[in-house]
Specification:
It contains nine helices and 13 strands. The chain has 297 residues and is of the alpha/beta class.
Length: 297
């Protein structure tokens, strides 16, 4: 099995995003002959039992062309790397030797990957045996679709809300001013997707996010100023500034055991991610939100 302890190639920091309408070619990707190849990038830190289920689902995929799997183990003991070596012969395993955070680790993963398309997958997610090939084909055919997101089912069968509106200053200020009962009307937060059908969305959680490699190359991948949290928001924002869209399709569903993925009971990680996003992309709004105490100074 290929393995890495360090990536000899430098990983450049993405430049601050700029509006570049139609900067990415809108002609369909051709890739290699036949179906474009897919690489699945999984970034791990702990969650060993959940990653074992994820790896088992990857080992039992029934696609016409087996995807490449790249595992970046940020953990201190290499436990997820060991699981990958046992369950996924031929997978690329990267051991950075430190916790890079999600953005840096994901960037290292997709830059090492060989696929024409890249699926970022959480280590606590499990895929069904079939359906990825159709998603990859659709991404290649539909020129204005820059990323594809799918339905998430929690272990009990409930649908997880994973699509979100871009955060807006006016909604944040309204939530601050209105009585508590009216605040949900102006939320940016995700809502369950059941029954709403296929549609374009502002941004989708990075637990399952499929993009073409050329799109990642143009955007520079994830912005490494985000350690964990907010990097998917930022990527989707820059993708749409480049003239592409995020497509949510409920036809393909994954299982997402999300209990341990996001421990942020006080909301500090969310506020920090939003502070970074507003500072990078909406500095005037960032100043206003800091002035009223909605973002950390």
């Amino acid at each position: 099995m290929p393995a890495e302890t360090a990536d000899p190639r430098p990983v450049p920091r993405p430049a601050p995003p700029r509006a570049e309408r139609a900067a990415i070619s809108l002609s369909p990707a051709t890739g290699s002959p036949g179906q474009p190849r897919l690489s699945i990038v999984v970034v791990c830190y702990g969650m060993v039992e959940r990653f074992a289920r994820c790896a088992d689902s990857l080992a039992h995929l029934e696609e016409p062309q087996a995807p490449e799997v790249v595992v970046v183990d940020n953990g201190p003991d290499g436990a997820c790397a060991s699981i990958a070596r046992r369950a996924l012969p031929g997978a690329v395993v990267i051991l950075p030797g430190e916790n890079l955070g999600f953005s840096r680790a994901a960037n290292r993963g997709w830059r090492r990957a060989a696929g024409d398309n890249v699926l970022f997958l959480n280590p606590d997610a499990a895929l069904p045996p079939r359906g990825l090939t159709a998603l990859v084909g659709r991404l290649a055919r539909e020129a204005r679709v820059g990323a594809i997101a799918v339905r998430h089912l929690l272990p009990g069968g409930a649908e997880q809300a994973t699509t979100v509106r871009f955060p807006a200053l006016w909604r944040a200020l309204l939530r601050r001013a209105l009585p508590r009962g009216f605040r949900p009307l102006f939320t940016d937060a995700a809502r369950p997707d059941r029954g709403r059908g296929e549609r374009f969305v502002d941004w989708a959680h990075g637990s399952f996010l499929l993009l073409a490699r050329r799109t990642l190359l143009h955007l520079g991948g994830f912005d490494e100023r985000y350690f964990i949290g907010g990097e998917d928001l930022d990527l989707c924002w820059r993708l749409q500034r480049a003239g592409l869209r995020v497509l949510f399709t409920p036809e393909y569903a994954i299982r997402h055991d999300a209990a341990e993925t996001w421990k942020d009971p006080a909301g500090e990680r969310v506020r920090g991610a939003l502070a970074t996003f507003f500072s990078l992309h909406r500095p005037v709004a960032a100043a206003a939100l800091r002035a009223v105490g909605l973002l950390p100074r």
